Amino acid sequence: MYEELKKTRAHSQLPSCLADGVRFSCTDCGLCCSGAPGKVRVSEEEIREISEYRNQSETDFRSSETRVVKGEVLLKEKENGDCVFFVNNRCQIHEVKPRQCRTYPFWFQNVRNDRAWQKTCKECPGIGQGKWYSPEEIVEVVMDELNS
């Protein structure tokens, strides 16, 4: 009974086009890494992982690859809005990319209504292929994002 209640609740929290779940797999296209400026938050743990992956001290990583805005530590961007790690149409830290990047496209701003999701579908070629995400999984990802 609990599982059925959980499923019903998840369905009611999503726009109708996501009520049955969706397939998604990152195609490494870079569209979510480039273009319009955004904010990619990085946690202390992610800073450690990325700097270790890059064989760089955390201090050097912080000074060269991050900026602090209103108390949030963010990855820097290039002048054109691309992520600092988006080089030659490839994420240079894909294996250890921040949680925020790993949870795309299931961000609140993308799943808040049918119109937002349809816009995201047009922008992201990975939607509709790959792993199946249930409504419960989608809601869990969105709630984790909102609570972080």
Could you give the count of β-strands? 6
Q: Which class of secondary structure composition applies to the elements?
A: alpha+beta
Number of helices: 7
The number of domains = 2
Strand content: 5-15%
Described by the principal axes of the CA atoms, the overall outline is globular
| Unreliable residue stretches | 1-8
The end-to-end span amounts to 30 Å
Largest sheet, order of strands side by side? 1-6
Q: Biggest sheet, open or closed, and with what strands and sense?
A: 2 strands, antiparallel
Helix/strand order: HEHHEEEEHHHEH
Q: Mean pLDDT, as a whole number?
A: 88
Alpha-carbon Rg, integer: 17 Å
Could you name the key traits of this structure?
alpha+beta, two-stranded antiparallel ribbon, 7 helices
Indicate the topology.
Layout: H1 2-13, E1 22-24, H2 44-53, H3 58-65, E2 66-69, E3 72-75, E4 86-87, E5 90-91, H4 99-102, H5 108-111, H6 114-123, E6 131-133, H7 135-147
Antiparallel strand pairs: 1-6, 2-3, 4-5
Helix pairs in contact: 1-7, 2-3
